[in-house]
């Protein structure tokens, strides 16, 4: 995906200008938009309406079936317990399995030596092929690199028996020194966590002798020259800030669960809680050396993902255990495993330096991020890259920008994909830094941003900072100005009244946010739609609905094209045997990428409807449109119902052909959604305690195809963003033993302590998106940490740059003042 | 061991192991609406009603249930005829992945039986042991308030579980919809 790009400092100003005008020309503002893609609000029959989520009724009756709910369909189902390392670094010298294996109702105990367990390196990251993540994992491990590494597994008649047997395993270790801090880990004297010869598919900049998983960098303009100039000139100011974010748990409601079995055709079938059924199928095929055609991955309802299910965690062990036990096996992780053995948001330390003119124009931004991958590298290079390349496009006009990211291994839990994908870590730095500039120059923070921020019609080059110079992203929709105006009004930015008590100080803080809509040039979505006799449709897509309502949005898009109510488009859940290919639910891509494939497939089917109508009404196809479950002639007003066409197409006298449509969609475009986060806080200067009165987030996601679902995304993401800002994250003792073992140890906000919040939808029209839509799932998770940090700064004058923001830190900072 | 109890108004006898919890017994017998989220009583996804009280079934030993009166999500309305709390959750879009929702609805049902017209603070207090990761709780609070209104007969409830009458006017889109703001 990303690659390093050494800046060419010998390049002349003329050459740079020539480069940039080439990129300008290659990315024109004009876009050849499909007919009927842009609809006025009154013309929209189904999209941008608050349609009911297609699974809502079965959820409220308890009938929605998640992976574990399929257990009863397998009368001889066995259950598993994974045995995990209880030391942070070392090697397993012996595992005595005899006592466990001898127990009644224990079907198998597997270790790395078991023939059913593959011993190839792979990555758990559910990404495009070849994955931009190192292949550094084994299904079961002899060398252990964090507390939680799987070393063996037991399968038994039920979970209790498996757990009892697991406790009878006698494991001997040779312990190694461990390292838990990224700064210490890159010291040449530090314990080395990976042998580079044991890792395949190394990522750019890997230096395993210094525990560096990846290192990438890029530059626009000449940053060193800009800082050198600042030293010489009084009207330029240099500002430097540092930021730090902790581990965060996804807290997915449904623990990762897989049922693996052989079906009646002797194929491997997995029912699994995954965001990436197709990647999982391919990766299992490679790992187990089984043809792709012999594996089926079915996605049932999913109890949310947030990135944690963008990877294989339970699938390989379940498949190996099903072979070892010769019967269906369910692997259901415990909550404790969820917190420290699955995946988390990667901690990051970010430094940001800038050069700014006296009147608040950014001249240079120099950003450096060091992130903690933990013991293994899934998503390490790509998330670390995103720390910079996601937020920096807000200020793409800055003539000199440099970004370097280093992903470092430690003997702590494994970081992975997590909603925002590096952007929250980067936004804290960039948007916190902007307020420090505003403070230094005595400018209003909103005014400072308005002078520098990206807007509609601009060419964003900052998102390509790690790519070659040919890259630019044209901004064809940007509602940031309106997001700021509406958010500012809603939070009461201009009307804050100070509390009567002298020790209480109230202020608003804000932060701008940006994300993408899919991975440009990478993701593929596809769709197939077929009509039933009665004019209803069955839609098959690889869109993986993990909870937000993707299936509902897909039905709305198809229904808008076909002139039917969304309830007449039945969406089948993603299944590799049935659905067209899709990269999966990640990178905020589903509505933008797969949605466009659905739109094109529905238009393809509509073409067939018009062919039938032409014969049935004896009018040219060009005369037709669809409305209210019928094809209608705009010339004569004659119409034929979809049901009539349905019966004619299948049983008619003239032409028999099934009304169907197919399409794929892949694009170089990835238009950013935008948003503005506001937080209103009162801080007690004596204790450091603070109260958040309100959080407002105004979002531009293009046309909101379903406002209920958009608000749901914004509110849920703001909850997570608030938790990142104020929660303790995951804590370890000095031996790397996790102290956060369950929900009671973790600061996930409840109804009682979640501060009030409001979501505002600002509509723009994105010409490259289906009916004008951009993404919305990730962007609202970026804003609360910087907005709250900025609010506290404005209230009491101290900067908390290392999350979480706590009363203790505020008090300590005030005492230092 | 065998346990006799009343489940959703039926007298039933379940076979259970000594270590089984109520959640184990329910799920083993096909009452899978209650979800397993933590097994430590900290998430509330497995909430059911026992003798009128909300109970986290993952930490209630099955052996203590002899003679108990247990209600699960399966006792409420069907998809064709939702109960008022269920339809309020649907109509307020108060669900995403849905994994917490059966427990959330059962907890809300007890609240509304005990406190028919709760204010927001009472709702937030009552639901504070039921986690939700998707919604930020905003629409869930709205749904419980709406359910309270419906149950006290102050608003019509659409027979199909859709929007209450009068709430779908304005957009002229021709589809049964409400509040789309158009």
UniProtKB/TrEMBL annotation, chain A:
GO molecular function: oxidoreductase activity
Residue ranges, compositional bias (Basic and acidic residues): 15-25, 35-54
One Pfam family from the record: MoCoBD_1
Top-rank taxon, per record: Archaea
SMART domains: Ald_Xan_dh_C
Region (Disordered): 1-54
Keywords tagged on the record: Molybdenum, Oxidoreductase
Every Aldehyde oxidase/xanthine dehydrogenase a/b hammerhead domain range: 61-177
InterPro entries reported in the protein's UniProt record: Ald_Oxase/Xan_DH_a/b (IPR000674), Ald_Oxase/Xan_DH_a/b_sf (IPR036856), Ald_Oxase/xanthine_DH-like (IPR016208), AldOxase/xan_DH_MoCoBD1 (IPR008274), AldOxase/xan_DH_MoCoBD2 (IPR046867), AldOxase/xan_DH_Mopterin-bd_sf (IPR037165)
The keyword Methyltransferase is assigned to this record: no
Keyword tRNA processing: no
Protein name from the UniProt record: Xanthine dehydrogenase family protein molybdopterin-binding subunit
Organism: Haloplanus ruber
UniProtKB/TrEMBL annotation, chain B:
Stretches assigned to the 2Fe-2S ferredoxin-type domain: 1-76
InterPro entries: 2Fe-2S-bd (IPR002888), 2Fe-2S-bd_dom_sf (IPR036884), 2Fe-2S_ferredoxin-like_sf (IPR036010), 2Fe-2S_ferredoxin-type (IPR001041), Beta-grasp_dom_sf (IPR012675), Diverse_Oxidoreductases (IPR051452)
CDD domains listed in its UniProt record: fer2
GO molecular function: 2 iron, 2 sulfur cluster binding; metal ion binding; oxidoreductase activity
Keyword Iron-sulfur: yes
Pfam family, one: Fer2_2
Domain of life: Archaea
Keywords: 2Fe-2S, Iron, Iron-sulfur, Metal-binding, Oxidoreductase
Entries under PANTHER family matching the protein: OXIDOREDUCTASE WITH IRON-SULFUR SUBUNIT
Protein name per Swiss-Prot or TrEMBL: (2Fe-2S)-binding protein
Species assigned in the record: Haloplanus ruber
């Amino acid at each position: 995906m990303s690659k390093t790009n050494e800046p060419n400092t010998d390049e002349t100003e003329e050459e740079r200008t020539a480069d940039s005008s080439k990129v300008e020309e290659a990315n024109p503002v004009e876009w050849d938009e499909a007919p009927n893609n842009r609809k006025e609000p009154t013309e929209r029959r189904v999209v941008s309406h608050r349609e009911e989520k297609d699974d809502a009724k079965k959820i409220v009756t308890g009938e929605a079936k998640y992976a574990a709910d399929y257990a009863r369909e397998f009368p001889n189902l066995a259950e598993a317990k994974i045995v995990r390392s209880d030391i942070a670094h070392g090697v397993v010298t012996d595992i005595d399995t005899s006592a466990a294996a001898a127990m009644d109702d224990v079907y198998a105990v597997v270790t790395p030596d078991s023939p059913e367990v593959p011993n190839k390196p792979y990555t758990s990251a559910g990404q495009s092929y070849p994955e931009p993540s190192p292949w550094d994992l084994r299904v079961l491990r002899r060398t252990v690199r964090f507390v939680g590494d799987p070393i063996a597994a037991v399968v038994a008649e039920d979970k209790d028996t498996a757990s009892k047997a697991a406790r009878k395993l006698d494991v001997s270790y040779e312990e190694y020194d461990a390292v838990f801090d990224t700064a210490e880990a890159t010291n040449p004297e530090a314990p080395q966590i990976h042998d580079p010869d044991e890792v395949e598919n190394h990522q750019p900049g890997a230096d395993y002798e210094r525990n560096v998983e990846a290192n990438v960098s890029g530059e626009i303009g000449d940053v060193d020259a800009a800082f050198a100039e600042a030293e010489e000139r009084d009207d330029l100011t240099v500002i430097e800030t540092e930021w730090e974010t902790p581990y965060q748990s996804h807290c997915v409601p449904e623990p990762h669960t897989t049922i693996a079995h052989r079906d009646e055709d002797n194929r491997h079938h997995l029912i699994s809680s995954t965001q990436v059924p197709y990647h999982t199928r391919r990766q299992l095929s490679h790992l187990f050396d089984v043809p792709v055609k012999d594996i089926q991955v079915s996605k049932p309802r999913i109890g949310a993902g947030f990135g944690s299910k963008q990877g294989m965690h339970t699938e390989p062990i379940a498949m190996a255990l099903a072979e070892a036990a010769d019967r269906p096996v369910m692997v259901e992780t415990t909550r404790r495993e969820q917190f420290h053995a699955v995946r988390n948001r990667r901690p990051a330390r970010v430094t940001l330096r800038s050069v700014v003119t006296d009147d608040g124009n950014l001249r240079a931004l120099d950003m450096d991020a060091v992130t903690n991958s933990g013991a293994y590298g899934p998503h390490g290079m790509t998330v670390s890259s995103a720390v910079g390349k996601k937020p920096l496009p807000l200020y793409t006009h800055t003539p000199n920008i440099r970004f370097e990211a280093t992903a470092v291994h430690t003997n702590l839990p494994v970081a992975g994909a997590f909603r925002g994908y590096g952007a929250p870590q980067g936004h804290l730095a960039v948007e916190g830094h902007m307020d420090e500039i505003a403070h230094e120059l005595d400018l209003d923070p909103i005014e400072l941003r308005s002078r520098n921020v990206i807007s509609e019609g601009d060419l964003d080059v900052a998102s390509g900072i790690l790519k070659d110079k040919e890259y630019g992203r044209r901004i064809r929709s940007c509602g940031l100005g309106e997001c700021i105006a509406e958010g500012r009004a809603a939070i009461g930015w201009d009307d804050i009244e100070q509390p009567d008590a002298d020790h209480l100080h109230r202020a608003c803080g804000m932060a701008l946010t940006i994300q993408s809509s899919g991975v440009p040039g990478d993701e593929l979505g596809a769709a197939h739609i077929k009509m039933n006799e009665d004019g209803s449709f069955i839609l098959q897509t690889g869109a993986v609905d993990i909870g937000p309502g993707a299936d509902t949005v897909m039905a709305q898009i198809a229904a808008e094209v076909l002139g039917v109510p969304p309830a007449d488009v039945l969406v089948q859940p993603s299944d590799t045997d049935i659905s067209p290919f899709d990269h999966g639910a990640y990178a905020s891509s589903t509505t933008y990428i797969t949605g466009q494939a659905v739109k094109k497939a529905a238009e393809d089917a509509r073409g067939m409807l018009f062919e039938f109508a032409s014969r049935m009404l004896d009018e040219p196809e060009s005369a037709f449109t669809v409305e209210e479950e019928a094809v209608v002639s705009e010339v004569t007003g004659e119409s034929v119902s979809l049901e009539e066409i349905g019966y004619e197409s299948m049983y008619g006298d003239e032409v028999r052909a099934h009304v169907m449509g197919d399409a794929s969609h892949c694009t170089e475009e990835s238009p950013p959604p935008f948003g503005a986060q506001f937080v209103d806080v009162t801080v007690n200067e004596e204790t450091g305690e603070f109260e958040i009165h309100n959080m407002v987030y105004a979002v531009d996601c293009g046309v909101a195809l379903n406002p209920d679902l958009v608000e749901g995304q914004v509110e849920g993401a703001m909850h997570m963003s608030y938790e990142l800002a104020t929660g303790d994250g995951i804590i370890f003792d000095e031996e790397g033993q996790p102290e956060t073992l369950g929900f009671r140890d973790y600061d996930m906000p409840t109804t009682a302590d979640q501060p009030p919040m409001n979501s505002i939808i600002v509509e723009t029209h994105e010409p490259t998106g289906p009916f004008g839509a951009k993404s919305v799932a990730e962007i609202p998770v970026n804003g609360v940490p910087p907005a709250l940090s900025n609010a506290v700064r404005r209230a009491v004058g101290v900067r908390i740059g290392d999350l979480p923001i706590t009363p203790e830190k505020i008090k300590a900072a005030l005492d230092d003042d | 061991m065998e346990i006799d109890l009343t489940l959703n108004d039926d007298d039933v006898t379940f076979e259970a192991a000594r270590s089984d919890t109520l959640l184990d017994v329910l799920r083993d017998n096909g009452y899978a609406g209650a979800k397993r989220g933590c097994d430590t009583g900290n998430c509330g996804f497995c909430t059911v009603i026992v003798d009128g009280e909300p109970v986290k079934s993952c930490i209630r030993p099955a052996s203590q249930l002899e003679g108990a009166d247990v209600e699960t999500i399966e006792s409420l309305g069907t998809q064709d005829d939702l109960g008022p709390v269920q339809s309020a959750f649907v109509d307020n879009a108060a669900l995403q992945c849905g994994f917490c929702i059966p427990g959330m609805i059962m907890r809300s049902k007890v609240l509304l039986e005990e406190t028919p017209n709760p204010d927001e603070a009472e709702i937030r207090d009552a639901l504070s042991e039921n986690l939700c990761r998707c919604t930020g709780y905003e629409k869930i609070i709205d749904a419980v308030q709406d359910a309270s209104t419906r149950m006290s007969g102050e608003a019509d409830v659409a027979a199909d579980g859709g929007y209450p009458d009068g709430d779908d006017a304005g957009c002229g889109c021709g589809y049964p919809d409400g509040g789309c703001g158009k």
